[in-house]
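Researcher: We're teaching a course module on how sequence relates to structure. For the next exercise, students receive a sequence and then see the predicted structure as tokens, so they can try to spot secondary structure elements on their own. Here is the exercise chain.
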Amino acid sequence: MTRNRASLAYVSDDAARKITYKKRKKGLAKKVSELITLCGIQACAVIFSSYESKPEVWPDSSEAQQVITRFQNTYARDETRNLNQESFTRQRIAKVSAQLKKQRKENSKKEMNLAMFQCAEGGSMDDEAMVDPDELDSLAQENINIINNKMHEFI
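Model: And here is the predicted structure for the students to work with:
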């Protein structure tokens, strides 16, 4: 059986609001305690209320101060590690540019392979292929070396 959703609305009756506040505060302290126990973490709760002159701190002020100090130190250290949007974008552009350069090189190699095999079948070099003869020679030598290595594997 599912529970009905509680409506989140301001409690207009002062007495009922104070009772609700005390119940929720107790539940919040219990949840923080469960987090600390079950997950083995450091946690604290600071509750500011119109019912109390000072904020209520759980578990106690000294432990909460340690947790808050540790959080602030960690946050300051992580802040220097985190990137701002501009540097993130620059890094991403550099990475994508490198990928594009690699893909263009791969495409060029495939075009030269295609042109080389078309020539080997008796076709002619298309003007569209715009293949650099030195690169074509290098690719042909590379393919010959691959074939020779495969032949030596079978022997």
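Model: If you want an answer key for the exercise: The mean pLDDT is 84. Residues 85-120 form the longest helix (36 residues).
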